[in-house]
């Protein structure tokens, strides 16, 4: 092998290593376990959480659930109710975006505290979360949120990132995603 080719293959190796190290760590370090399975959304927690109070915080109107065809039954558990609300929210966000992916599944990982959320972000990306209360990781198809920020506007915003990413098949440009996700959040809060 000539010296030039040797040098080139060495440089290529360096580039590949740098690229690899720039990617995030695949483990958020919090040991989430699946708690609730909906049609479109699975909910994970690193510790026990109160599905009833999360559902209350989410506050999805019964009319939204009915429009989504996910009307509750009286014997539903709190977990069933939360799953139903999240599925309804997913359909509502899909309608606002006019992007419909019926085979879509996504994970929501609920951190007990803001400190846990920060720790997960730090572990995944090696940088600070910068005061945000939620984030979406395209490669893990996961929304991370702290329990106190578990609200329709915030979850809907992150669902929007997930839907846009899947709709285009690649992570869309950040600004483009952010404008659309803020539009979703605005509509959900109206
Ligand atoms: Zn966003």
Describe what you observe in this structure.
The protein has a single domain (33-189), classed as Glutaredoxin. Helix content is 52%, strand content 13%. The protein has 7 helices and 5 strands. It has a 5-stranded mixed sheet with strand order 1-2-3-5-4. It is globular, with a radius of gyration of 19 Å. 33% of the residues are buried. It binds zinc ion. Zinc ion binds at residues 157, 161, 178, 181.
Compact summary:
By secondary structure, the protein is of the alpha/beta class.
What separation lies between the terminal Cα atoms?
66 Å
The rounded Rg comes to 19 Å
Please give the largest β-sheet.
Answer: 5 strands, mixed
Low-pLDDT segments, ≥5 res: 14-22
Provide a count of the helices.
7
Strand content: 5-15%
CATH class, named Alpha Beta
How much helical structure, as a percent, in the residues? 40-55%
Q: What keyword list fits this structure?
A:
alpha/beta, Glutaredoxin, 52% helix, globular
């Amino acid at each position: 092998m000539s010296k030039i080719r040797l040098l080139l293959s060495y440089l290529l190796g360096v580039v590949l290593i740098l690229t690899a190290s720039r990617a995030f760590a695949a483990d958020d370090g919090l040991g989430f376990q699946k708690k609730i399975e909906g049609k479109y959304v699975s909910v994970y927690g690193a510790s026990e959480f109160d599905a009833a109070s999360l559902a209350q915080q989410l506050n999805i109107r019964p009319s939204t659930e009915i429009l989504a065809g996910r009307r509750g039954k009286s014997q539903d558990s709190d977990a069933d109710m939360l799953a139903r609300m999240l599925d309804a929210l997913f359909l509502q966000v899909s309608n606002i975006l006019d992007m419909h992916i019926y085979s879509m599944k996504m994970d929501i990982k609920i951190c007990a505290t803001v400190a846990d959320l920060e720790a997960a972000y730090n572990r995944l990306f090696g940088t600070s979360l910068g005061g945000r209360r939620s984030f979406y990781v395209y490669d893990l198809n996961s929304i991370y949120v702290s329990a106190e920020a578990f609200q329709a506007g915030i979850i809907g915003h992150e669902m929007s990132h997930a839907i846009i990413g899947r709709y285009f098949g690649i992570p869309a440009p950040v600004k483009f995603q952010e404008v659309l996700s803020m539009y979703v959040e605005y509509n959900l809060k109206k």
